[in-house]
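Hi R.,

Here's the chain you asked about this morning:
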Amino acid sequence: MDEVWRKLSEPFPPGEVQWRIEALSRDKKRALVVPYVDARTVLDRLDRVVGPEGWHDAYEVLADGERVVRDERGERRERLVEVKCRLTLLGVTKEDVGEGDSLKAAFSDALKRAAVKFGVGRYLYRLEKQWVEYDAEKNRFTPPKLPESEEVLEEEKPEAHRLIDQLLERLKEKGLGREAAKIITKYGGYGKTPEETRRLYGELRALYKG
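And the predicted structure, written out as tokens:
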């Protein structure tokens, strides 16, 4: 239990990370790309960390309609589906809403967004978007090189997170790893806001002091 959060939030091997185009330069020779992982990769992470029996998901379709898209090709309508995912790990539930141009895409997006609240792939949101050379005729680009996992963990982790990690190690040494893991899971890792991070640290300190 005391390793659950750490394992959920570990960076993925570079081969499992994909890149998608977010924008093109005006001359269409460069693309702004962002990293992501697909839903199957998230499912594999959940199975590997808590086991297939340690989690379950439920979905609700919130909307299935159309939206107007305006770009250089003019104005057009495309399908817009919104889905809410309720993801439960070890008795703790987080939820988020995803969207897409099909039910499949919306379900996948909702799952990934809910999993981020448990730390899965959250580090990807902190990585900088990158401009790369783009071949418009072939619709291809060369994916950027990701930093090594150790570099990601060291460079992206704020001081508050490192302090929490140190406290977790002390709690583990005192045999309180299971209780600490429950607190970590409740906050979805280090907390989504500075205030949550402070409350998390306070609860861990209280546990340590007894």
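The longest helix spans residues 194-209.

Let me know if you need anything else.
M.
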